[in-house]
Amino acid sequence: RYVVAGADAGSKLERARAALLRFHPGLRAEVEATIAPLLAACPDDLARPVPMHGDFHCNQVLVDGERVAILDFDLFGHGDPLHDVARFLSRFETYAQDLFAPADLRAAQEAFVGAYSILVPRKLDRRRLGWWKAALLVNRQVLKGVKKLADAGPDHTSVLLGAARAAAEGRDFA
Questions:
Q1: For helices 28-40 and 126-136, what crossing angle results, to 10°?
Q2: Which of 81, 116, 167, 170 has an alpha carbon 20 to 30 Å from 106's alpha carbon atom?
Q3: For residue 49, which of 73, 89, 84, 86 has the smallest C-alpha distance?
């Protein structure tokens, strides 16, 4: 249906910057420290496009014993093979922050990435995965509160911006 590339996420990052600065002017330094490097490192090529879910996260998966079903293909398209992986990781990190100690959160994400690396026939580009995860943390998770006017406040936004910087710098999991 559509193709998702780094340039798409880059233009969304520009819009995210503007919205976050309007909503959280006191976080200007953190917003800029997060988004400016992401824009500078935006992938200008589209890794070999593959079919992708478009909004893959744990709430889209039903498990019943040995049976697994994936739901909600309304954003199905073709795009960067790491988009869905990064989307899953960014959503997991956001929801698991208050449930796991930081080391356990990193270990869980590393286990997921490790399994993905074993099961997928191409070499995992961790730098690209980190960029996508960071971009999706900003574009989907940080902005969610702003869009819904249910923001958890500058502290929560600051934590997610920090997580995005860690992902972009390769510091979020081993």
A1: 140
A2: 81
A3: 84
Between CA 48 and CA 114 the distance in angstroms is: 21
Neighbouring residues of 50: CB distance < 8 A, sequence distance ≥ 6: 78, 79, 80, 81
Residue pLDDT, tens place only, 2-49: 556 666 788 889 999 999 999 889 999 999 999 999 999 888 766 678
DSSP E strands, the chain: 3-4, 50-52, 61-64, 67-70, 77-79
Distance between CA atoms of 88 and 85, rounded to whole angstroms? 5
Q: Which of 20, 19, 91 is nearest to 54 (CA)?
A: 91
Determine contact, residues 76/54, Cβ cutoff 8 Å.
yes
> Of 135, 126, 115, whose CA–CA distance to 40 is shortest?
135
Q: Encoding tokens for residue 169?
A: 């710098």
